[in-house]
TrEMBL record:
InterPro entries: FAD-binding_Monooxygenases, Flavin_mOase-like. The keyword rRNA-binding does not apply. Belongs to the FAD-binding monooxygenase family. This is NAD(P)/FAD-dependent oxidoreductase. Keywords: FAD, Flavoprotein, Monooxygenase, NADP, Oxidoreductase. It comes from Pseudonocardia abyssalis. Its cofactor is FAD.
Amino acid sequence: MGRNEVGVVVVGAGFAGLYMLHRLRGTGLSAVVLEAGDGVGGTWYWNRYPGARCDSESYYYSYSFSEELQQEWEWTERYPAQEEILRYLEHVADRFDLRRDIRFGTRVTRAEFDDGTGRWGVHTAGGQRWSAQFVVTAVGCLSAANIPQIPGLDGFGGDWFHTGRWPHDGVDLAGKRVGVVGTGSTGIQVIPVVAEQAAHLTVFQRTANYSIPARNSPVDQAFRDEVKAGYADIRAVQRASTNGHPFLISPTSALEVPEDERRAIYEAAWERGGLRFRASFADLLVDRAANDTASEFIRDKIRGIVHDPATAEKLVPLDHPFATKRPPIDTHYFETFNRENVTLVDVRATPIEQITSTGVRTTAGEHELDVIVFATGFDAMTGPLLNIDVRGTGGVTLRERWAAGPVTYLGLQVAGFPNLFTITGPGSPSVLTNMPTSIEQHVDWITDAVVHLREEGIDRMEATPAAEDAWVAHVNEVAARTLLPEAATSWYLGANVPGKPRVFMPYAGGFAAYARACAEVVADGYPGFELTSR
Ligand code: NA7
């Protein structure tokens, strides 16, 4: 093969791309990873905002594929901070000698399938062209920054930043008047830290959010030893679970237990902290009355923490049930609104009209600011893929295929795009799970598929339109059995990005059920895929 001709182009060198490259070694296929950033890490390379931290616990927000790796790495905190995850991924890149096949500073702009040769042409912003039999996207689900189109931003006299594109040398906020727009998981992490640094912080909230205390703390050697001795069981529970976490959802209905007992269960979960709160009862995401008990518990907590009753009422979420948007976890988020230097602005009641040269003007007046932080999230799941001009058979673009919302088979392939695999694509459960668990499953599945094709002398694999239709119908049907589509402002639905089709994108049937469905496809000889040789 010539220069720039490979078996596989992998796009992205985060958790997914690194493991994909590792697995491709030994398959006989040559591979290159094209990465826009100047280093590995993906999400954890870009999201360097103050307070950036994972909401999964460190001991399981990690790869399971190498026993040596999981035994040798020492996590220092219950929830890993951005720097620590980045260090871990850099370690993985070095330990498995991955860097030699990664091209950094290389942004993929276009990928087109050539019907004649049966190969993909992959083009980069720097004018390179790669030719590959397979393309695997490892571009992340939350990597295309959503920066609101607010009139006047260009004329703002201060500095502004999106949290997902934070400057690598940091931003000095000391003595500054700072505005944070957005109160999702990111806003809820950044707000308490900025409040401590800034002279004054103004929080612009559109949708009030439920949040559970994280209860972060250092981890000691005894905990690390216990985890390392128990990894086989921990990983087994993760793979058998709904969300890829090493705990199972309680089998008990919230409505089955007496009120005092239910309250005690919520109190214990609140004290323990973290995403496990969501697993307190079996039916929190499927039964509105059950969910109400959790939603009401958290609303009471907010009212108890926030001193000023008017501010507390603005912070109490009323417009969606708990956990129908991705629930954040926090370190002193609600407490932050008791500080003298913090103001909460409800931009649903008084919308932002304009950014002026000196600040943000809402319908209720102007807030003077030196710095604006947009914690406004991402064009989730589809954005990173559609930012690449992907063209399949007959020159049809992915943008055309997905004009009414994304369609996939198993979240892994799109009909009309042969030999293109999408790690954590829409229609997969990834964003509802602990990401590395889903990523490992997707990468293993894709690796098995390409090995199968090689062994069988097949050179083209493509989802059939019928299999895609059936999977999309199944994804919709599963979502409709839950309360998840009820959150009208959720990024799961694409509702955070103006003009984006409203389609519930993730597979909500749980990680274990999804992995089983994928394994059955393999065991049955890849039904739903057309496998052809030239
Ligand atoms: P999210 O969860 O999408 O949160 C973004 C926040 O920004 C949310 O509160 C939005 O309000 C708000 N937002 C977005 N656009 C605007 C405009 N134009 N005006 C005012 N407020 C706005 O993103 P995150 O980065 O916090 O978290 C993403 C995921 O990362 C998270 O779910 C975890 O999986 C990890 P809205 O709720 O849309 O009314």
